[in-house]
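Provenance

Sequences were taken from public entries as deposited. Structures were produced by running a predictor on each sequence independently, with no templates supplied. The record for NAD(P)H-dependent oxidoreductase from Bradyrhizobium archetypum is shown for reference.
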Amino acid sequence: SALKILVIPGSLRTGSLNAKLAAVAAHALAQEGADVTRISLGDFPLPIYDGDLQAKSGVPKHAVNLKRMMAAHHGVLIVTPEYNSSVPALVKNTIDWVSRVQDAHEIRGQVFRDRVFAIASASGNRFGGVRALAALRLILSACHAQVIPNQLALAFAEDAYDEMDHLKHPTDAEALKALVRQLIDVSQRMM
Ligand code: FNR
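Predicted structure for NAD(P)H-dependent oxidoreductase:
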């Protein structure tokens, strides 16, 4: 069966630069033969993490469902915006809740430990969200995830696409291809 990759944009905004990059990455992954699922975190709404809430009602079903969805894939690509030099609260809060889901809920293995993660970001400025990537790498590593060395920080993202929504600058397209290929290569070892 095909290699399964889950793509998660870290922004809910209509016209999100990161959702757009996630769409381009999903297309590139599919072209390389992966079976790609692209989701919106808008379909997994979660309250801000609160230990009292967890003690009273358990982990919300959307966190359990999201963790199940991750467990059903070999690799996960997170495409995150940069907010004030870090990941948006949406991304951190989602990971915090998912990290609290008990293993018994999972399909197989440990969701972070046994899956390969890749990270990318898009930003309007010249740094491309590289500080958010450093933060996200640290967070995922704390969850024992394997995060591949390649990453993509898409700078000047408003001007990065042509009319077909393809990456118009060859250096960006090459960086995306390298990321996608490494994610597939490393994920294949998990099959
Ligand atoms: C930003 N933005 C931003 N950009 C950046 O490169 N570094 C940063 O530290 C910040 N900080 C920041 C804080 C907050 C609260 C907001 C709302 C925005 C700009 C951000 O990159 C831009 O809004 C992107 O377009 C957000 O991603 P999406 O929604 O287009 O995917």
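The radius of gyration is 16 Å.
Strands lie at 4-9, 35-38, 75-80, 116-122, 146-154.
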